[in-house]
């Protein structure tokens, strides 16, 4: 659906986006996660055609953005970081104008306006100037213009930024609803946002893509934490077992040591755990603890920002 290939963007000599590649399939909701200044907005601006890349290629449904910008822009909706730029216009006039810009006409325009207004629940604000709207309503107006014309790709830059918890929930529900007919990429620096609505996460660190992973895969741990009194060398030798990738000594605990056991991708954690337990018991050693390691986005985010290598993270996930 969306393909981004070796994208780079500099501002003067500063590299804001550094050789970023990813592709997104139809129907996915993908979260672009990163600290302030990581490059999220720059990537979204490039994908939506508002900013030129220095190098790299963006295609939407096989159409090249650089060669056919108008065609690509017709198939996407964009909620920019800073909201509607016509504060003096009423919501109705602004949406009418946005529909014209998207080339909507006649009955299609009318029905699309009705749909976007209903989906974002802004009927009661239609005759109000945008300047007087609360942050939450401005955000809804921004989303309403983004979904006009049923875009195949929706690009949302920090869609819940500044919203209160109730508005945030409303916006998340709306995004999930819209995603039934569209592919969505949204940027955020809030991990819970990604956990709540995304099926996949792209983590950026200083302009580079540090992690690209499905949330399901992240949740399914391929590491076991083991505490045992068994001789250290016997535990480390488990790395030679077929289903185990590596064993690392973490630290010593009372009466033994703690290890992280990394499993092969094809290994079944429960079966390997049972085998380890049986082995330790057969050696007459104590098994103090053996459990899957919990890895959540927060842990990974910290690791990314502490400079973990992309390979290491993918492996860890
Ligand atoms: N027009 C510009 N001129 C110079 N530097 C810029 C410009 N726009 C962005 N930058 C810099 O590029 C880097 C990436 O900015 P970008 O807005 O893409 O990050 P971001 O991840 O969206 O950040 P935030 O979460 O704060 O919105 C930042 O260091 C920013 O200061």
UniProtKB/TrEMBL annotation:
It comes from the Bacteria. CDD domains: ABC_DR_subfamily_A. The keyword Isomerase does not apply. PROSITE patterns: ABC_TRANSPORTER_2. Keywords: ATP-binding, Nucleotide-binding, Transport. Residues 2-231 form the ABC transporter domain. Pfam families: ABC_tran. Belongs to the ABC transporter superfamily. This is ABC-2 type transport system ATP-binding protein. It comes from Marinagarivorans cellulosilyticus. The lineage of its organism: Bacteria, Pseudomonadati, Pseudomonadota, Gammaproteobacteria, Cellvibrionales.
